[in-house]
Amino acid sequence: MKIKTALILCAGYGKRLSPLTLEKPKPLIEVNKITLLENTINLIRKLNIQKIKINTFYLENQIENFISAKDFDLNIEVIHDGDQILGTGGGILNLIKNSNENDFIIFNPDTIWNSKYIKIIKEMENFYYNNKVQNVLMVVNKRISYDKYLKGDFSFNFNKLFNYEDKNYIFTGCQIINKNIFSNYKNTSFSISKIWNKLINGQKLYGFESLNEFIHITNLEIYNKLIKN
């Protein structure tokens, strides 16, 4: 991978997994005897990325202690959102603002990542650099989503994402971004969708399709179904 730093978003409350998340942050919930966070870190390691930045807010000390206790053979930095949760956009900006690098790959840990994603991620990175774009989101057709109730986020056509009525594609929780897309934003609380919508208006939000079954821990019902199988 050309990209040297991965970001993992771990600040959320995970309310849809309550009561599991009342005393434990969502990234530390286990599926197949491994936490969602460690599962994500394992994929990043297989991509040969050595630097990871993790943002935290809710029950932040648990995530910090987990990283410390695991002693991963990687350069992992935990960065707190601060006095208020910053949302996906503000959280990413807070992670990258002090970095000298320009390009980052970002993961939401509530997707069940596995080795099948390595090939698609490398292809997505090639698309990003070869086409000299500043963003690309990994998307999947909702037909192959484990959670059949998940609605689509985007329309997808020739590697571009739109907000048309036929939103058949779901954002998987993996994206590559250039820090310049945050140049007009301040370090406050906002959703990454604010930037996505602006890019869509300029027909500059890019997508890359994954054909892997998409397993996302949406809520308690999906979690319970998954661990019973």
Task: Describe the model.
The chain is an alpha/beta fold and 229 residues long. 28% of the residues lie in helices and 23% in strands. It has one domain (5-228): Spore Coat Polysaccharide Biosynthesis Protein SpsA, Chain A (Alpha-Beta Complex). It has helices spanning 36-46, 60-70, 87-96, 117-130, 192-201, 220-228; strands spanning 5-10, 30-31, 34-35, 51-56, 75-80, 103-107, 135-141, 155-157, 160-162, 169-178, 207-209. The longest helix has 14 residues, at 117-130. The mean pLDDT is 96.
Mean pLDDT: 96
Strand arrangement, largest sheet?
5-4-1-6-10-7-11
- Low-pLDDT sequence parts: none
Number of DSSP helices? 6
Total domains, how many?
1
* The CATH homologous superfamily: Spore Coat Polysaccharide Biosynthesis Protein SpsA, Chain A
Strand content: 15-25%
Please state the overall shape, judged from the principal axes of the Cα atoms. Answer: globular
Report the biggest beta sheet as strand number plus sense, adding barrel if it closes: 7 strands, mixed
Using only C-alpha atoms, the radius of gyration works out to: 17 Å
Helix content: 25-40%
Structural class: alpha/beta
Distance between the termini: 34 Å
What name does the CATH topology carry? Spore Coat Polysaccharide Biosynthesis Protein SpsA, Chain A
- Could you give the count of β-strands? 11
Q: Please report the first level of CATH classification, the CATH class.
A: Alpha Beta
Helix/strand order: EEEHEHEHEHEEEEHEH
CATH architecture: Alpha-Beta Complex
